[in-house]
Specification:
The complex is a heterodimer of chains A (140) and B (495).
Chain A: H1 6-29, H2 37-54, H3 57-63, H4 68-89, E1 98-103, E2 107-112, H5 114-138
Antiparallel strand pairs in A: 1-2
Chain B: H1 7-18, H2 26-54, E1 57-60, E2 71-74, H3 76-97, H4 102-105, H5 109-125, H6 129-148, H7 153-184, H8 189-199, H9 203-220, H10 229-235, H11 238-262, H12 268-292, H13 296-317, H14 320-351, H15 362-365, H16 367-381, H17 388-401, H18 405-430, H19 443-465, H20 467-482, H21 484-491
Antiparallel strand pairs in B: 1-2
Helix pairs in contact in B: 1-2, 1-5, 2-3, 3-5, 3-11, 3-14, 3-19, 5-6, 6-7, 6-11, 7-9, 7-10, 8-21, 9-11, 10-13, 11-13, 11-14, 12-13, 12-18, 13-14, 13-17, 13-18, 14-16, 14-17, 14-19, 14-20, 16-18, 16-19, 17-18, 20-21
The chains are: A mainly alpha (140), B mainly alpha (495).
Transmembrane segments (chain A): 12-32, 38-56, 68-88, 111-133
Membrane topology (chain A): Multi-pass membrane protein
Main location (chain A): membrane
């Protein structure tokens, strides 16, 4: 008899979004509370892994058509660019800048370039985790 | 504020990332790798002259005050090593074009090389003990990739041993740093040196010194800890072997050099005496290995062990002559090991075997290769005016000055065994009856391999003949090593 995994597929679709948004929350909260790029990235990839478990690697690849190796490259470039940008201004490597901005809807917010570096970390962590899982998963 | 000293680290890193894209385009991969190496080499040379003219260069990340941020320090020692590393990398990558095989080139061979260079240059430049650990991991991760890439049975067997031993030594490294941090409360190398000088190196610091010797000794392959090196290195394909033989153990040697001239200098009669005897035993063990084998790869690999012993013997003298000699010999050894591994790579590609007893008569079919091999062999043994001479002379002089008469004479005598071990290759492979060969690469390909090899050998000859021009650089390096206050003052120049 063919097994029917309706329930897990239905639950996974909803839970995926809950985990993914929690990952984004953890990622954005990293500056003032526990969290940051690394945990955020791990959580985001665990959301994708849940989809892989409920469906299969091929389906997930059509739903999220991302080449994870490229993602690693982009993340690394973003991190290096953030770190190297101060060199062009004459400041030491890895100097970070921040300021307060008044944004529409959110209001007065402090924005920090450490955020961009963390985005790089986030992308690299997702890329590496997913590359490992996909490569092992596809291995015959 | 001076970011220039970071360029030889950042540029290979940047090109490594760029090469992650365009995996299938050989022209992009090769061209990108070559351009990256040449640009970073140019920066390294410029840095070398800047350090020569303006003194030690430092930068602290993020503009933090000195002991709190990660400081990168480029003194003469590190500038020389970085320049040599990038120079050799250019020729080894060139050598790889015709021998590594397109399957490997399509699978992140060049990004791994770029990352290994990032790690090596970073480890040579950093002024923070934990950052040193991170750069060690960067270069080790990349070296794991390079050693296993291709996935032949021999490579897999060699890489298991290699990874296992390095994971253990990295864990020990973290533990040693944790001990050191709990005693002195700082990670900045200049600050550690100051704090240790304040408490005048009590017993616990000496214990940590021995722990560090254990850690870096595992990476550098000193006497009781060199057991992993022969089998794991023999697994790597020739271009990778040349890269490893020229660079990787030297990072461990550099780390011992740095810690034993900057931190642990208040109990010389224990720490440096230990280093001295270990280096002598390393040379003996290396000589036994180099003479015992009929496998050409193993003979040269055991010569790495011998060279590590000679360099550390120079460091153990703790006087300016010994340290300058150690620097001279370190750079010489990087160049000559790259040249020798490239040469025996060609011999293996020509004959299809690594067993000396199955070779012979190569002199008739390739005389130029034979003469270049002979020059490299004499250079390794230190016959004047070739490159190994000045370094070993200064090391022996330093040894005599420090009153280590017997061991210094032993160092000089060990050169004879080194010469014997490499001349055996010459006698077996180049003289005698011609033997049937099973060439792995075509004649045209081996000729193309020979060009970068010949250039490296010519560089090594120039290094020996032009020692006079290099002496000011080497003297600066020796002075910085012999007098830690130069390093410490450069880092804390603001106060």
């Amino acid at each position: 008899m063919k097994t029917n995994d309706m329930i897990i597929q239905f639950t996974a679709k909803i839970v995926f979004f809950i985990i993914f948004f929690f990952a984004i929350h953890i990622f954005l909260a990293g500056h003032y509370t526990p969290g940051g790029g690394f945990v955020g990235g791990l959580l985001a990839s665990s959301a994708i892994v849940l989809l892989v478990l409920a469906f299969d690697i091929k389906t997930v690849r059509t739903v999220i058509p991302v080449n994870y190796t490229t993602l690693i490259g982009i993340g690394l470039l973003l991190a290096l660019a953030t770190a190297a940008f101060p060199m062009f201004k004459g400041d030491p490597f890895f100097t970070h800048y921040f300021d307060y901005f008044t944004l529409p809807l959110i209001g007065k917010t402090s924005l920090h370039t450490a955020m961009l570096f963390d985005t790089g970390v986030f992308l690299v962590v997702v890329g590496v985790t997913m590359t490992i899982i996909q490569t092992i998963g596809e291995d015959e | 504020m001076n970011n220039f000293l970071l360029l030889p680290i950042i540029i290979p890193f940047f090109f490594g990332m760029i090469l992650l894209f365009g995996q299938k385009s050989l022209r992009f991969q090769r061209g990108g790798a070559m351009i990256g190496l040449i640009i970073s080499f140019a920066c390294a040379v410029a840095l070398l002259f800047k350090v020569k003219n303006d003194g030690v260069q430092t930068v602290t990340f993020g503009g933090w005050p000195e002991p709190f941020g990660i400081t990168m320090v480029s003194d003469m020692v590190s500038a020389l090593l970085v320049t040599t590393t990038l120079l050799l990398a250019i020729f080894i990558v060139w050598y790889g074009f015709n021998s590594i095989g397109t399957a490997r080139e399509h699978f992140y061979y060049y990004p791994a090389i770029m990352m290994i260079l990032t790690g090596v240059n970073g480890a040579f430049t950093t002024g923070d003990i934990f950052n040193l650990f991170v750069f060690f991991e960067v270069l080790l991760m990349a070296s794991y990739v390079l050693i296993v890439l291709g996935g032949t049975k021999k490579q897999l067997a060699g890489s298991i041993k290699y990874i296992l031993i390095n994971v253990i030594s990295s864990a020990l490294f973290v533990i040693s740093v944790a001990y050191l941090y709990s005693v002195v409360g700082t990670l900045n190398m200049a600050d550690i040196a100051l704090k240790i000088a304040e408490v005048n190196q009590p017993g616990i610091i000496t214990t940590i010194a021995v722990l560090f010797l254990l850690v870096f000794g595992l990476k550098a392959a000193i006497f009781p800890l060199y057991f992993w090196l022969p089998t794991s290195y023999a697994a790597a394909p020739p271009p990778v072997l040349a890269l490893f033989g020229a660079l990787l153990t030297k990072v461990g040697v550099y780390a011992i050099m740095r810690t034993y001239t900057l931190f642990f200098i208040h109990d010389l009669s224990y720490t440096h005496e230990l280093l001295l005897w270990l280096s002598v035993l390393t040379i003996i063990a290396g000589c036994i290995g180099a003479l015992a084998y009929f496998d050409i790869k193993q003979i040269i690999i055991y010569n790495i062990v011998i060279a590590v012993g000679v360099i550390l013997f120079g460091v153990a003298q703790m006087n300016e002559d010994g340290l300058t000699g150690a620097m001279f010999y370190l750079i010489h050894d990087m160049i000559i090991k790259a040249a020798l591994f490239m040469l025996i790579g060609i011999i293996v590609y020509k004959t299809g075997t690594t067993d000396l007893r199955k070779m012979g008569g190569l002199m008739r079919s390739s005389p130029v290769l034979g003469w270049f091999y002979l020059i490299a062999a004499f250079g390794l043994a230190g016959i004047p005016p070739l490159s190994g001479f000045v370094g070993k002379l200064l090391i022996a002089k330093g040894g005599f000055e420090a009153g280590n008469l017997g061991t210094s004479i032993f160092i000089l005598a060990s050169s004879l065994l080194v010469l014997l071990s490499v001349i055996r290759i010459f006698i077996y492979a180049f003289w005698g009856e011609e033997q049937p060969t099973k060439p792995i690469l075509s004649k045209k390909q081996t000729t193309q391999l020979f060009i970068p090899t010949a250039i490296v050998i010519i560089i090594s000859i120039a290094y020996g003949v032009g020692a006079e021009w290099l002496t000011p650089f080497m003297n600066d390096a020796g002075k910085t090593l012999a007098d830690p206050s130069i390093y410490i003052d450069a880092v804390f120049k603001g106060e």
